[in-house]
């Protein structure tokens, strides 16, 4: 059994490297960055350190800076805010508990100080809290944004592309290469495509100027990273962002935030082969009318398949569904149609996903070949710069 002196010596050794980090930071700024980072933190992790934030305080020139990192090993987010740094240093703090606690504090300054044994003291006004942290040394190393080779992308364009494709990504873990969207960069355009094997969403934005690209650059972005990227794109004022990659990692940099993600390996399917070429029967309807009709009819579709029937006849589009459990329903939309009659079945939820993605306004064009071939939907909005198409495999009804 160690003697008292030996024990206290051991303690001193443990505490010495952690007895630093002392900062003051504004609650509003800290909360804004914690909100951005907390969604990356792994909720149910078997590795305790991953449920912590890494705090690193440094004095940069005149101003101090607090850098906050969260990771689940697949992806990480590093963000920062201004802070008064009394002592530079690093510590880790339980993420969920800290986020919930800071949200409950009133506006004002918060002081954060690392104590012995990785405990962290947080003081704000009359509140004084100590949280049990973990050793900084246990926190995984997060890759740094590459010094060169980054591409500058438009935030607005990327935001549009993610929202128009993310819902079509496959949820089936076994279909590994479909668990992400493919980003295709060219010198004058960028495109994104996602598919789950039953449907495919493809959006292309023309009129971009991307420097440093000859030919095309294809990158597969995992669904989880895309969803995190979407949050960042929606909460930034920046007009452009930086995108880079190396052999194993993707990097997205917006303002003071850097999102990194492990790359998806494998080959994305040859989507160009499935884009319909000769869907020569088409009908144009108001998105709003179509959405309302589908939602009504879908109430009576078979719960498992969600299938509804689209019947095109002389100047009308008829939607119908039936199931032994709930009954049957039919809705008719009057619209010019002068081709041969056609009956085709689709998953109603897949149709609704597309109409939501185009914002449920304006008109939509539905293009068909026959009952066995893929249907194609696209907005009829005359926007020449953004080409959006949604391909849907028919269902047997």
From TrEMBL:
Subcellular location(s) of the protein: Cytoplasm
UniProt organism field: Granulicella tundricola (strain ATCC BAA-1859 / DSM 23138 / MP5ACTX9)
Stated family: Belongs to the beta sliding clamp family.
Stored SMART domains: POL3Bc
One Pfam entry name: DNA_pol3_beta_3
Keywords: Cytoplasm, DNA replication, DNA-binding, DNA-directed DNA polymerase, Nucleotidyltransferase, Transferase
DNA polymerase III beta sliding clamp central domain ranges (all copies): 153-270
UniProt cross-references to SUPFAM superfamilies, sorted A to Z: DNA clamp
Lineage: Bacteria, Pseudomonadati, Acidobacteriota, Terriglobia, Terriglobales
Gene Ontology molecular function terms on file: 3'-5' exonuclease activity; DNA binding; DNA-directed DNA polymerase activity
Recorded GO CC terms: cytoplasm; DNA polymerase III complex
Biological processes per GO annotation: DNA strand elongation involved in DNA replication
DNA polymerase III beta sliding clamp N-terminal domain residues: 22-142
Name of this chain's protein: Beta sliding clamp
Protein's job: Confers DNA tethering and processivity to DNA polymerases and other proteins. Acts as a clamp, forming a ring around DNA (a reaction catalyzed by the clamp-loading complex) which diffuses in an ATP-independent manner freely and bidirectionally along dsDNA. Initially characterized for its ability to contact the catalytic subunit of DNA polymerase III (Pol III), a complex, multichain enzyme responsible for most of the replicative synthesis in bacteria; Pol III exhibits 3'-5' exonuclease proofreading activity.
Subunit structure: Forms a ring-shaped head-to-tail homodimer around DNA.
CDD domains (alphabetical): beta_clamp (cd00140)
Domain DNA polymerase III beta sliding clamp C-terminal per the UniProt entry, residue ranges: 274-396
